Amino acid sequence: MTEIKKKPNIKNAWQEARQLVWHHRKRLALGLALMLVSRLAGLVLPASSKFLIDEVIGNARRDLLMPLAFATIAATLVDAASSFALSQVLGVAAQRAIADMRKSIQAHVTRLPIRYFDSTQTGVLISRIMSDAEGIRNLVGTGLAQLTGSLVTAVIALGVLFYLNWQLTVINLLILGAFGAVMATAFTRLRPLFRERGKINA
Predict the structure, then answer these.
(1) Exposure check for the chain: N or C terminus, fewer CB within 10 A?
(2) Taking 70 as the threshold, does the pLDDT of residue 71 lie above it?
C-alpha cells in the first residue's frame, strides 16, 4: 500500500511559531536591541573613512584625526561587546526552546500506540526528536535577530546609496534582483535534495 503523506498545516505551524516567539519575547527583544546597537556601531567605520579622506586628507584637518581614531576604536569595542552579549542572550533562549521542544516531542512519542513503533524506523523517531527540534534555533536564536539586523542595515545603506547616486543604485538593484532570481531557482531545485538527505540520515 502506498503511504499517504499528510500536508503540513501552515496555519497551525504559524500559530505555534507565534506562541514560541511570544514565550521568549523578553530575550528576543533584548537580542534585537543588541543587534541594532551592533549594526549601528558597525556603520561608524565606513562613515569615518569619508571624513578621513574628505576632511583629514583633503582639507588637511589633522585635528580631526584623533577624534576619528577614538570614535572608530569605541565603535569597534561596542560592536564586539554587543555581538558577544547577543550570542549569549539568544544562545540561551535557543537552547531552552530546543530542550522544551524535545521534551514535548518525547512526551508525545511515548504516548503513541505500539503499532506506530512497529511501522516506523528508529532513525526516523530519533531524527524527529533530536534533529527537527534544531530548526527552531533560527526562530528564537540568532536567526531572527540577524534577519532584522540585516534588513535595518540594508535599508540604511540603500538610503545612503540613493542619496549619493540613484542611477547607479538602480543598476545595482537590477543586478542583485537577477542574482536573487537565479539563487531562488537554485534553492527551489536543491530543497528536495536536502529533504532526501534528512530521510537518508534518519
Answers:
(1) N
(2) yes
Q: What's the whole-number average pLDDT of the chain?
A: 78
Instruction: Look at residue 138 and tell me if it is in a domain.
Output: yes
Instruction: Record the cell numbers describing residue 195, joined without a space.
Output: 529533504
DSSP letters for 1-49:
-PPPPPPP-HHHHHHHHHHHHHHTHHHHHHHHHHHHHHHHHHTHHHHHH
150 found inside a domain: no
Whichever domain contains 29, its CATH number is 1.20.1560.10
Closest CA to 69 of 81, 58, 56: 56
- Per the structure, how many domains does the chain have? 1
Q: Has residue 155 been placed in a domain?
A: no
| Residue 181 predicted with pLDDT over 70 | yes
What DSSP character marks residue 121?
-
Residues 91, 36 contacting (CB under 8 angstroms): no
Confidence of residue 121 (pLDDT cuts 50, 70, 90): confident
Q: Which residue segment(s) compose the domain that 102 sits in?
A: 10-144
